[in-house]
Design goal:
The protein is of the alpha/beta class and 525 residues long. Helix content is 58%, strand content 7%. It contains 23 helices and eight strands. The strands form two sheets. It has a six-stranded mixed beta sheet with strand order 4-3-5-8-7-6. Strand 7 and strand 8 form a beta hairpin. Helix 4 packs antiparallel against helix 5, helix 5 packs across helix 18 and helix 15 packs across helix 18. The longest helix is centred in the first third of the chain and has 27 residues.
């Protein structure tokens, strides 16, 4: 028995090492890069923190199905509840709140290897797929952000893993879990409400013609898919705007949306033309392999969503699926790649692959098909090509990592709302070493009240309760009373002076490139 376990562990060791490397790399210096705390990360974490302590969200709702997010829209629940589990044992900080996404990213790498092993029954191909996933820039970036964009990926992979298990073993339980994964995945990210039903229908179209006992099997699959949707209905009756206010949110991005028409307002002739124009761009080499997402929250803009060298593996993988591996499961994977732009292209906000991260598993899987095909060709030229791809991929990834932890911090800080956290941390430290009767925070700092709440919890401070908010455009802070501490944007300090009447500048908050973003003023006489 001991020898059998040892032998099994020996076989698993390379996979476990790759997973460990993935975790160490993906979790490295989470407080350093991303450069600051994004407002969405903050809101997700505050609701998760509240759930972990009271089982209520910030507004007092007991275990809500969805979460009211930044006073704007209802956010999906998976990310909040997963984060609340982490915060049950960890404190509130930038590093710790991002660990759930590290878990999701590393789990996705593991699931990709499991799926490849089920498809090819080849240990080396499984390790290859894990390596390709590990060095995928868009997966690396989003595994370090507490944003729900990535949370569709593990559910997409679970759908495929258990579907393949059903096709191999003909047992009903994997089929039920496959449908259940799609159903739960609907609540992982807003774009999933479009993509998961598409995958459900695609399974029916691609797989069902060859399945025995179709009616019984389909019933089990449908039941798994519908359970998470049926559980959503009572919440939807109580909060009918949960879906409708998504239209308002899309309308704030895309002016062509006819908000007054509700869900139908998303579809009109102007928007259909926009969709048809945007769709093919998401399949272009530019967004996939050269520039990535146009937002510096989601991309460095120096590297594509995927490393450039893997374009060769992807191209040969598509050819292999179309002309060599003609099994329907492979075709289903190709279908997944070709349809991933549907959700992001619905919003006239181009080049936002962050809304279509379901592409990740399909690209990696097709690259694995491509590698297997190229490796099967005995000509020396193709072996040289494979060596070139891997060497070039490694150097490209090293370039990406160096830029991510280097220049990217200097270029992206404004996208992360500047160093609000640094300004509030400085203010909190000042209240502990100086006599401070009142802390005045500039009202125009982005989501300042929520940032004040986050950093008050992080540093166990009473800043939130002591804070008073003011508008420097209508209030002259130099007239504030003695023992006042003032936090304001540097651009609103008259002449960026070191002293303004009785107030002295005691702290300057600088961004990674040296730009002065916030000043702390204090009056002690």
């Amino acid at each position: 028995m001991g020898k059998a376990i040892k032998k099994k562990l020996t076989k698993l060791l390379p996979f476990l090492v790759l997973i460990l490397i993935s975790f160490l790399l993906y979790s490295y210096r989470l407080d350093f890069t991303p450069v600051h705390l994004n407002q969405d990360e903050m809101e997700f974490s505050l609701n998760a923190y509240s759930i972990s302590k009271t089982l209520q969200d910030q507004d007092g709702r007991f275990l809500p199905f969805y979460f009211w997010h930044l006073s704007s829209f209802w956010a999906t629940p998976v990310i909040v509840y997963l984060t609340s589990i982490f915060l049950k044992f960890l404190s509130l900080s930038e590093s710790y709140i991002r660990l759930p996404s590290v878990f999701v990213g590393v789990s996705s790498i593991a699931l990709i290897m499991i799926l490849v092993q089920k498809i090819f029954r080849n240990k080396n191909l499984s390790l290859l797929s894990g390596f390709l996933a590990l060095i995928t820039p868009v997966l690396f970036i989003h595994s370090r952000l507490l944003l729900d964009n990535l949370y569709t990926v593990p559910f997409t992979l679970l759908w495929l893993v258990f579907l393949k298990d059903f096709l191999d073993k003909k047992k009903l339980f994997p089929l039920f879990v496959s449908g259940l994964s799609l159903g739960i995945g609907i609540h992982s990210y807003h774009a999933a409400k479009i993509m998961m039903p598409i995958y459900f229908l695609a399974t029916t179209a691609f797989i069902w013609p060859d399945v025995q006992n179709r009616l019984k099997n389909f019933g089990v699959y449908l039941l798994g898919f519908l359970i998470p949707i049926l559980l959503f209905i009572p919440w939807l009756k109580a909060y009918p705007d949960t879906l409708l206010n998504q239209v308002t949110y899309i309308g704030s991005i895309d002016s062509s949306v006819q908000v007054q028409k509700g869900l139908l307002g998303v579809f009109n002739s102007k928007r259909i033309k926009s969709f048809l124009s945007s769709y093919p761009k998401y399949l272009s080499p530019e967004i996939l392999f050269f520039t990535g997402d146009r937002s510096l929250i989601h991309s460095t803009r120096k590297t594509g969503a995927f490393l450039f060298p893997v374009v060769f593996l992807l191209a040969f993988g598509i050819l292999a699926v179309l002309f060599i591996n003609k099994d329907k499961f492979a075709r289903l994977i190709l279908f997944g790649l070709l349809t991933y732009p549907i959700a992001p292209a619905l919003v006239n906000d181009p080049q936002r692959i962050s809304r279509g991260l379901v592409a990740i598993p399909f690209v990696i899987l097709l690259c694995t098909y491509g590698f297997r095909y190229l490796f099967s060709i005995k000509e020396k030229l193709f072996r040289v090509l494979l060596i070139f791809i891997f060497v070039f991929s490694w150097f490209h990834f090293v370039f990406f990592i160096q830029d991510y932890f280097g220049n990217y911090r200097k270029e992206s800080y404004a996208w992360f709302n500047n160093d609000i956290g640094g300004a509030l941390e400085s203010a909190i430290k000042s209240t502990r070493i100086r006599k401070v009767d009142r802390v005045y925070l500039e009202r125009n700092i982005y989501f300042i009240e929520r940032y004040a709440k986050f950093y008050s919890i992080k540093f166990a401070s009473d800043l939130e309760s002591r804070a008073k908010y003011f508008d420097p455009a209508s209030e002259d802070f130099s007239s504030f009373p003695i023992y006042s501490l003032v936090v304001l944007r540097a651009e609103n300090a008259p002449g960026r002076a070191d002293k303004i009447r009785m107030f002295e500048k005691i702290e300057t908050i600088r961004e990674p490139n040296g730009y002065e973003s916030f000043y702390i003023f204090y009056r002690d006489k």
